[in-house]
Amino acid sequence: MAKKKTFRPKPRRPRGFRDRSGEEILAEQAMLRRICDVYASYGFMPLETPAFEFTDALGKFLPDVDRPNEGVFSLQDDDEQWMSLRYDLTAPLARHVAENYDALPKPFRRYQVGTVWRNEKPGPGRFREFTQCDADSVGAPAPHADAEAIMMFADAIRAAGLEDRDVKIRVSSRKVMSGLLEAVGLDPEDKGVSGTVLRAMDKYDRLGAEGVRLLLGQGRKDESGDFTQGAGLSDGQADHVLAFMEAASDDDAAAIAQMRGVMGGSAVGAEGADELDAIAETLAAMGYASRVRIDPSVVRGLDYYTGPVFEAEVTFPVQNEKGETVVFGSVGSGGRYDDLVKRFKGVEVPAVGCSIGVSRLLTALAARGEAQAARGPVVVLALEADRMPAYHRMAAALRAEGIRAEVYLGGSGMRAQLKYADKRAAPVVVIQGEDERTQGEVTVKDLELGAKLSETVESNEEWRSGQPAQVTVPEGELIAAVKRALGAD
RNA sequence: GCCGCCUUAGCUCAGUUGGUUAGAGCGCUUGAUUGUGGAUCAAGAGGUCUCUGGUUCGAUUCCAGAAGGCGGUACCA
């Protein structure tokens, strides 16, 4: 007789998707609040848009193919139209502005927190589902809105918990990159060779001048033996590009001047350099010069950028759980995208904004050991089965005072209940067993203080008999006693 | 996508030159303590040795493939 097998699915998650603990969520919420407070203080208003957008609105159809780009999660609605999960918050903003153009004040300034999805291979601090926190000004031309975006970005990064020495904010411009490409004799519009050159420049930090030279020329083989095809430039052209990269300097004006020299007579290049000069001037006047550098090695992948671009990287080494130091990407970026709304409206609407990768930033801070354990709720022990209403009353009274509190609802004894409270990181437990009840009293035990005291207590007998860090008070003084215990730490 | 490493208890990992009962530390449960989280001591639970196929009398161990994980690299619209 054949036994019927019960189907039991494996509990598992798709690659790059994570469950997140209560502590991580609280840390993220706190970080988001601090970042958004900065955005709001600059006059930005919040906006929410849906997780799904029509794929054509995101601009993510593959050229000449009736299918969405591989990098976005997509599905067909019941009318066969392709929809995709948003992969950033900028494309939905452009859609929103285009759709409500006449009613919106220009410039339109909004900030937005949201989950975004990218169908890519996950890496360290890199997921397929993560949170971004953006602020953008739509309808504000260069370079003043760019300078503001960069200053606000620096403020937001600082508010998020990164001190100035922990982060490097670098600024460049798509226009000076185009100027360089023209000077080298390439067509900036040519996505092939020019794209390869820009990607090589983007790796200057990681691979250094020699690595970039290989990528500009024939190609480069990495440690794992994988070969990357190069851009095929001549030695002279490569020298030219590297001279541009070496313009980086502590003196922004000098860096921009050298970039001008390398770009020769390019008109776009000169325009980009003028904008960078204006930005650098504002940053210096506002006291941001020590926190932000003009640096030609910033490229940024998104090809919708049209002017200044910037990004923030952490300067401390990030290690994974195995203790290996890991290649960690940027924690935030931004730039100018003057053509994004034009896709819908036909008219150019200048726009600039920034985005902070909150999930990655949290990963970086956690890797540095800055995750602090969150305090749990006060736990009211449940010692006598027929006294549950009284326990609930005590918890409710604490809540009414704004103190997080819960009644123990498991089925175990006192010892296990205390272990539970310990594991929950409860700061305080409230105990009313038969002894206290008959006296009209309640015991308030300070677990945090007790943990501290236990370090100096050797024997179990001493530990038990001393009953450290707990007080028994009349029922009416419960709230006051709990508050004392909470405040004492 | 390409390259490399890895996969044995909840976690971190040993181990079996192919042989019957696969181990440790930590964690977990219970007790020493009719009502007190730490420490100590004692007892206990927990494994299709990732999966599939091959070689073999016999595979957790050898071989091949797959899946998953980690890292690098590419891509990142």
From TrEMBL:
It is an enzyme of class 6 (ligase). One of its GO terms (molecular function) is ATP binding. Residues 1-15 have a biased composition (Basic residues). It catalyses: tRNA(His) + L-histidine + ATP = L-histidyl-tRNA(His) + AMP + diphosphate + H(+). Residues 29-389 form the Aminoacyl-transfer RNA synthetases class-II family profile domain. It is found in: Cytoplasm. One of its GO terms (cellular component) is cytoplasm. The keyword Ligase applies. Residues 1-20 are annotated as: Disordered. L-histidine binds at D88, L89, T90, R118, Q132, D136, R300, Y304, Y305. It comes from the Bacteria. Keywords: Aminoacyl-tRNA synthetase, ATP-binding, Cytoplasm, Ligase, Nucleotide-binding, Protein biosynthesis. InterPro entries: aa-tRNA-synth_II, aa-tRNA-synth_II/BPL/LPL, Anticodon-bd, Anticodon-bd_dom_sf, His-tRNA-ligase, HisRS-like_core, HisRS/HisZ, HisRS_anticodon. Homodimer. Belongs to the class-II aminoacyl-tRNA synthetase family. NCBIfam families: hisS. This is Histidine--tRNA ligase. It comes from Parvularcula dongshanensis. The gene is hisS.
